Every structure is written in C-alpha cells, then in structure tokens.
C-alpha cells in the first residue's frame, strides 16, 4: 500500500524519482476505496487445487478482492466434481457485459496441442480480446501466456523435445518496473511446459518489456508498457508437491519424463520437495494487485478505457 505524507515534504519528490508510490494528503482526503473485482478463468484440470493456490496469493494483500470463477469449456470434467462447477463457476456469457479490475487466466495441459486444435481456442481468443476493453490488467499464466502471445502478436510457439520442468533461478531485469519492485536480483520459480517463445521475437515483434529471464529457460516475465497485460511463462502459484505430482502422473502414463530440474533434494524423487519460491510468488501477486490493478483501475468501472498499447500483429 502507498505511504501517506504531507504534500510539501521533500521526501515526496525523492521517493517519486525512485518509483516508490506516495499518496499526498490532499489525495488521501478525497480517496474513495472499494473492493477489487477479479475474474479467475481456470483452465487447469484440477480446478479446486488451482483455486486454492491462486486464491492464497490473492489473499496476501490488505486490499479487499472479490473473485469470480469462470469457465469456458462446457465438457464434463474428469478431475473436478460437476456439482462444484455448477455451484461456483460462471460462463462467459454471464459476465461479458461487465468490467473488472483484474483477470487471471491459468495454464492448461495443452503444450503439445496446436492452438487451432484446442477445443476452446475460439473461446479463449474471445476472452483475450474482451479483456482489452473490459479489464484493467490481465495476468496470463504458462499456457495462457503462450496463447495470448500467439493471438495478440502472431508469435508461433516453439514446441520443445522434452518437457521443461523444474525450479529455475531467473534473473530480474528492469528493476525500476513496479511489477518487479522488491524482487531479488535472482529468484526461483517453477516451470512446467512443453513450449517456448523465442526471446528475440518477443523483444523485436511485440511492445512488451522483458522483466525476468533464464539463460536456458528463456523469458519468464514480460509486461506491456501500460501494465495492462502481464505474461508469466511459469507457475509461481504451485504448491511444493505439484511438480512431483505431475512427474508421477507422467511416469505412470509411460511418458518417461525427465526429472524436474533443481527440485527434489539430491535429485531423489523419493525425497519430499520443498517450496523455495513462495516469497517471489506472493510479491509478484501483491505487486500486480497494487501497481497494475489498484493504482490504475478507475473507481467507477463503467469509466474503464480500452487498452491503448497496440499489439504488433504479424503479417
């Protein structure tokens, strides 16, 4: 949250130059505060697990956040009870005429499937387009980041020969960007994907700023200049044992997966893994809620303006 200081205090200008948010008394007196309205489009098979993971991070803020759960795949789920979906989830038609402060689109186990063969590809593209006019800031996670990079910028994904899985030490770039404020120079984050995008293509063919990367794993975090579209190619929300569950699932399926990198103690899958990325995950979400949503969103959501940054579509 911002600090509140007298308008004329010399520290105000110093802190402003350092990109630290300061609220002058004159603004604080007239400030209106309301709950943030956030939509979670959950594409993961184990929806309840993903809800718990992401809601835990959204709760780590002094802001009041109202969350609506959204689905776009009407097929029967094999991993989530239908009673749960019917009770707690909404369809896109139910919310498409409303504006929201934030939208989170999760990953999905679709890394090896061509975009045009994804069952709900048309629906996900509709939501991405809708977010540009109805949402202040959108957080795209893993496969959703791949889908948005393809739809908005025409970038083809690069399918990997082996699943990129593990806990990678990423380098923080552009530390004056509010989304990475407080990040260490290097931080750990889980990755679990079959696809990648070329770093040079993101740098040259989009309007995005690359905020964190890894020499082998590539871009981890990127954002539009206006912070209205955020792309995270990993899973900061994962629990300590999520990668282990995926590894065991793939092993039982006969996929013969590689051992997740830098994850099991001593590279021994019989050992219990430890979460070493929680501080980064909490900081990423709190920065997103504060600087990309709360500080930007209008008090009256009906006054929301369309996204001004233009995607550099290929062709």
From TrEMBL:
EC number(s) on file: 2.3.1.46
Keywords carried by this UniProt record: Acyltransferase, Amino-acid biosynthesis, Cytoplasm, Methionine biosynthesis, Transferase
One of the record's GO cellular component terms: cytoplasm
Any single GO BP term: L-methionine biosynthetic process from homoserine via O-succinyl-L-homoserine and cystathionine
GO MF terms held by the record: homoserine O-acetyltransferase activity; homoserine O-succinyltransferase activity
Site residues, Important for acyl-CoA specificity: 111
Major location (coarse): cytoplasm
Enzyme kind, highest EC tier: transferase
Compartment(s) where it occurs, according to its Swiss-Prot or TrEMBL record: Cytoplasm
Active site: 142 (acyl-thioester intermediate), 235 (proton acceptor), 237
Pathway: Amino-acid biosynthesis; L-methionine biosynthesis via de novo pathway; O-succinyl-L-homoserine from L-homoserine: step 1/1
Reaction(s) catalysed (UniProt annotation): L-homoserine + succinyl-CoA = O-succinyl-L-homoserine + CoA
UniProt binding sites for substrate: 163, 192, 249
Site label Important for substrate specificity, positions: 192
Keyword field contains Acyltransferase: yes
PANTHER family: HOMOSERINE O-SUCCINYLTRANSFERASE (PTHR20919)
Function comment: Transfers a succinyl group from succinyl-CoA to L-homoserine, forming succinyl-L-homoserine.
UniProt xrefs under HAMAP family: MetA_acyltransf
Name this protein carries in UniProt: Homoserine O-succinyltransferase
Organism: Gallaecimonas xiamenensis 3-C-1
Gene name in the database record: metAS
């Amino acid at each position: 949250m911002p600090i509140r200081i007298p308008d004329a205090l010399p520290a105000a200008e110093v802190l402003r130059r350092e990109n630290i948010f300061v609220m002058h008394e004159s603004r604080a007196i007239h400030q209106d505060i309301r709950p943030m309205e956030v939509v979670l489009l959950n594409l993961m098979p184990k929806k309840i697990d993903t809800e718990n993971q992401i809601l835990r991070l959204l709760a780590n803020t002094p802001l009041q956040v109202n969350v609506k759960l959204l689905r776009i795949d009407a097929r029967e789920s094999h991993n989530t009870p239908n009673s749960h979906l019917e009770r707690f989830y909404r369809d896109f038609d139910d919310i498409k005429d409303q504006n929201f402060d934030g939208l989170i689109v999760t990953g999905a186990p679709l890394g090896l499937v061509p975009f045009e063969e994804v069952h709900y590809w048309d629906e996900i593209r509709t939501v991405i387009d809708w977010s540009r006019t109805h949402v202040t800031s959108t957080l795209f996670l893993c496969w959703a980041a791949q889908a948005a990079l393809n739809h908005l910028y025409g970038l083809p994904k690069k399918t990997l020969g082996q699943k990129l899985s593990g806990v990678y030490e990423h380098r923080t770039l552009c530390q004056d960007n509010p989304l990475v404020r407080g990040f260490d120079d290097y931080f750990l984050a889980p990755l679990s994907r079959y696809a990648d995008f070329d770093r040079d293509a993101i740098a040259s063919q989009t309007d995005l700023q690359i905020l964190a990367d890894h020499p082998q794993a590539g871009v981890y975090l990127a954002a539009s200049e206006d912070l209205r579209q955020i792309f995270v190619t990993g899973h900061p929300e994962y629990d300590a044992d999520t990668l282990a569950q995926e590894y065991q699932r793939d092993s039982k399926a006969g996929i013969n997966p590689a051992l997740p990198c830098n994850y099991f103690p001593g590279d021994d899958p019989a050992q219990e893994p430890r979460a070493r990325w929680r501080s980064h995950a909490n900081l990423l979400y709190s920065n997103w809620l504060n600087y990309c949503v709360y500080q930007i969103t209008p008090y009256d959501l009906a006054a929301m303006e369309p996204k001004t940054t233009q995607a550099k579509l290929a062709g």
